[in-house]
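Notebook, bench 3.
Goal today: get a predicted structure for CR-type domain-containing protein from Paraburkholderia susongensis so we can plan the truncation constructs. The sequence was checked against the plasmid map this morning, with no discrepancies at the termini. Length recorded as 242 residues. Pasting the sequence as submitted so the record is complete.
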Amino acid sequence: MKDPKEQAGIAMSIRGTFCESTVDPKVTLAALAFADSLGTLLWHMKYGQDVTARVYGCAVDALSNSVCHRRWFDWQLLIGSDAPSIAMLARRFSERLIVEWVADRCDACGGRGVKFGHAPAMTAVARCEDCNGGGRVLELEEFIPFYCGRNGPRPVRHYRRCDPCLGRGVKSLRALESATDVCGHCAGSGRAPTDVAKRAAALGVTVEVCRRHWAGPFRQMLFELDVIDETVAKTVRLRCGR
């Protein structure tokens, strides 16, 4: 079968009925119902593009309730925050977590981790073949009988400027080479880089406090959301494979 995430995205999309699918969308949605509730909501937002206030609010409620019961999530994290309670801080934390996890694609490379394009043009100078480097081309040659020399009538030649090289005698050769470089914005990971300032603004703390106390919780919870994502994928793959 196709990638279960892609298949779920087609099934949850309004345009899914117009797409070619190897699995019945109803079967995919039924398989998704067996997954964890938080994972199902996350899939609706990330792969089904269902980012309505209802789905987002339900996901925030489920995640904040889970965060509040974490051993490491205690009142010490309220230091420097303007949140009135630990529940409010957990909700702010959950909101930012979901935004970062759902919209995790690097904008610079589109999530591929590499950038495609052309290297800067390489310029080389070569002698013009049309005028042999002289800068002019013979246009007319005449022999005048009464203008004779030792070897007979002398020719009278008329020249014009060489158009390909514009009379310079040399031509500039440029070559564009295709280049594939690792994206410098995300360092090849394909994920959007961490924005500490936006995290601090969402939590209501200073940038220094966010960098010092919140880097670990964000890293841990983003990893757990990835685990939930893979668990849902296994469930959908198992149910659709039967």
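DSSP finds eight helices and six strands in the chain. The mean pLDDT is 78.
Flagging this for group meeting.
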